[in-house]
Structure formats: C-alpha cells, structure tokens
TrEMBL record:
PANTHER family per record: HTH-TYPE TRANSCRIPTIONAL REGULATOR YJDC, TRANSCRIPTIONAL REGULATORY PROTEIN
Organism listed in the record: Ferrovibrio xuzhouensis
Residues of the HTH tetR-type domain: 6-66
Feature: DNA-binding region: 29-48
Protein name as catalogued: TetR/AcrR family transcriptional regulator
Keyword field contains Transcription: yes
Source species, domain of life: Bacteria
InterPro entries: Homeodomain-like_sf, HTH_TetR, Tet_transcr_reg_TetR-rel_C_sf, TetR_C
Keywords assigned by UniProt, alphabetized: DNA-binding, Transcription, Transcription regulation
Gene3D superfamilies: Homeodomain-like, Tetracycline Repressor, domain 2
Record keyword S-adenosyl-L-methionine present: no
C-alpha cells in the first residue's frame, strides 16, 4: 500500500499553477516550484512527475477552476441570455480579483507552448472546445426562447464569445478598469440582442 503524502497535494498543485500562471512555463524553474509548493524536489518528482507533467496537471487544475467559477451558469440545463450575461460579468470579476493582473493561463500557454508541444496543444484545443460548447448550449436555449435573434449562427456566436472572453482577460492584464471591461463586455453582448421589433 502506498504511504500517504506528508503534504496537501491539491494545495501544492494550486501553488504551482499560480506560479506558472504568473511567470509562464519556460521562466519558471524547479527551484522556484519547490519553494512555492513547499515540498522537496524529490516529493515533486514522486508525486507529479517532471516539470512538464506538473505543468499539465496545473493547467488541468486551471481548467477545472474556470469550469466552476466562470462556466457554471452556462452548464445549467435552462441556461440562456441571463447565464451569458452572468458569465460575462463573471469574467470581469475574475480579472479584477487579482491585484497583479494576468491573462488566461490557457491563452498564455497557447502562445508559449502549443506551437511546438503537441500534448499541450491538445489540452488547449480541448479547453477552447469546452468553452465553445458551454456558450453554444446557452445560445441555443436563448434562441429557442426568443431571447436573442434566431438568424445568428450559434457556432459562430459561440466562437465569438470565446474570443471575447479571452480578449477581456488580455485587456485586463493591460490595466483596463472594471468600468472599461464592463463596457467592453456590454458592447460585445450587442451581437446577442434580439433583432427586429424586439430590439426596440
């Protein structure tokens, strides 16, 4: 029987994820990781594998956080326009929460590693597909209930909202205020307004 770990593996992984998120993969050293995680180098290897394996686990943890904190309203069976709005405002809150602004870890990873790391690229694609599917679910419901125009392509709208969410995170990192980010989200939401007499 394997001996229980002498540390909180989930908490240590969370600290590694935070470090990768702030610094990126290449510039984060093993020395920085073991210091941030509060464990020995051997414990890191024994528990998570090498640095690359730890990074993969960290981005999985990040995606799980986004699913819980940002995409949860979209996952409800009856999610519609209100859920889309709640998610947009949730993205703004998510950005403002951190005193030291940061963009999306997966967007950062897509730029840094995905072009030359097939495993990471697959995880990035899976994450973006999950976001797109969540938005598409709410868009389908909103169109069926007449909350938004029915002539828009749901797939195209979902991809647009994924791009909007990532764009907000980038703008947040550049220093945009809550008011500015909220205004951007509201302008982006204009693509979902009902057309015809309902828009008046």
């Amino acid at each position: 029987m394997a001996r229980p770990k002498g540390f909180d593996t989930a908490a240590a992984l969370e600290r590694a994820m935070e470090l990768f998120w702030q610094q990126g993969y290449a510039t984060t050293s093993m020395e920085q990781l073991v210091a941030a995680m509060g464990i020995s180098r051997q414990s890191l290897y024994d528990t998570y594998g090498d640095k690359h394996a730890l990074f993969l686990a960290a981005i999985d943890s990040y995606c799980a956080r986004l699913a819980t904190e940002l995409l949860a309203p979209l996952a409800k069976p009856d999610a519609g326009l209100a859920a889309l709005h709640a998610t947009a405002m949730g993205v703004v809150d998510f950005i403002i929460r951190y005193p030291k602004r940061r963009a999306c870890l997966m967007a950062n990873t897509a730029l840094e590693l995905a072009p030359h790391d097939a495993v990471v690229a697959a995880k990035v694609r899976s994450h973006m597909a999950a976001m797109e599917a969540a938005f598409r679910h709410a868009i389908d419901n909103a169109q069926a209930r007449g909350e938004i125009a029915t002539d828009g392509d749901p797939d195209a709208l979902a991809r647009y909202l994924v791009a909007m969410a990532n764009g907000l995170l980038v703008m947040g990192k550049s220093g945009a205020s809550r008011e500015q980010l909220t205004q951007m989200a509201e302008v982006a939401a204009g693509a979902l307004r009902p057309s015809g007499p309902q828009a008046a």
